[in-house]
Write a structure and sequence with these properties.
The protein is an all-alpha fold and about 110 residues long. It is about 65% helix and about 0% strand. It has 5 helices and no strands. The longest helix has 26 residues.
């Protein structure tokens, strides 16, 4: 396994774990009277720098981003995009596995 693939896999696991934690806590405490910022802050930290777009999205659509779970959806999408980009960059850095223009017969 290439190092870039290993790092992308580890980052994907970290994003999945933090997103899962954020989703479970947000759904469980959806109607609670207390704040529960730790899961969402953890997810926002893990998905930096893409999570910084949340401020711009809130300014553009404050009514939408004030709804429950919308910010969690946005942060999860940011994490998914970053994990996909990490795998693509790792694939680009390692190059193709075989050269498609060569054959066994040398032609």
């Amino acid at each position: 396994m290439k190092l870039t693939h290993l790092l992308a896999t580890l980052y994907g696991g970290l994003v999945a774990a933090s997103a899962g934690y954020a989703w479970v806590m947000d759904v469980r405490l959806l109607h609670a009277t207390t704040e529960h910022l730790l899961p969402d802050l953890l997810l926002a930290t893990v998905t930096l720098p893409a999570s910084l777009t949340g401020t711009w999205m809130f300014q553009a659509w404050p009514g939408l981003f004030s709804q429950p779970l919308v910010q969690t959806v946005w942060l999860t999408l940011c994490g998914a995009v970053q994990v996909t980009a990490a795998f693509l960059v790792g694939r680009w850095m390692t190059g193709p596995r075989t050269c498609p223009h060569t054959s066994k017969h040398g032609t």
